[in-house]
Amino acid sequence: MSFPFPHIPVDRLGPTDPRASARLVGQRHHFTPTRLSDYGLVVPGLRFSESDEILYHKVGAFATMKPEPELGLGIAHDLGGTLTESHRHELVMVRVLGPVEVVTSGGVLEIGSRLQRAVLAALAISANHTVSSDQLAQILWQDRPPASRDNTLQTYIARLRNVVGHDRISTAEEHGYQLHVAGDELDAMVFERLANQAATIRSEPDRCLGMCRQALALWRGVPFGELVDDDPFRLEAIRLDEVRLFVIELRLECELALGRGEVVVGALEALVEEYPYRERMWHLLIAALSLCGRRVEALRACDQLRKVLGDVGLEPTIEIRHLEDDIIDEDPAVRPRLRFLLAQNGSGH
User: Can you list the domains of the chain with their CATH numbers?
Assistant: First the structure.
């Protein structure tokens, strides 16, 4: 797959490592095959000039590769040496809230085989912490690693470095590897940060709602995609999905606090069908129906919940029983009180 080569400021491609010493000759940077080899880079299909050089043409204040190779960010990052933090942020994000991906401003990069994606996903779960070679081997091959286990792992790591950047994956002294990411370079980290921030401002439904929407927009499907049935991805996916459901509940709570009961009733009806034991969702559905003046349907929802819980020997919470009593008594204060509780602290949280 071809990807547009990212535009990189010329001054950031300067000689930061003697093995990657780039020299500016007129309007060009020159890298020989020997210099690529020093970095352990294999670039299939890359064409060189007659003097065995890869040509980088300066375009205004930026450098681009010509001819365009069959690769993405990795080669530029390695040849560029140490990148500044601001430059690193604009180039890459690792995404696990869906199929495992690496994205840049130029698009999605090719990671490689399923096992290579599993290595990146395992490093992402423990981002900024070391994952031992033994742990990685267990994830990839369970109890039947190949005889060439360590060499194969090193090959996967080398290939991943060509995708995400050499300095992003370090080798630990205790025979392990570590993926280095900033707080905005791993979608799961961004999602959990937004979820925590939203929870702290739930008394401000407008702001909280916006933050919930930002968090949920990061989800592209089942976490880790095709890897989700393998440990440890299955357990991490369950944990992340629990946070997602909390954010969904918080978003709907904010909608209700803002008086948008009619908008969320349908979503809540579908959610209680899918998650019948999440009492918080039932509470929100009953509140939404009541706020919309649909008292009969609200009481039917109370009965449905009582039956669902009764099948497992439980009773509805006292908050739901009080809400049911208010609806039956036609308490005129029930609607403003519901809105007040939702806006203050999430009604029952």
Answer: 8-83 (no CATH), 92-258 (1.10.10.10), 260-349 (1.25.40.10)
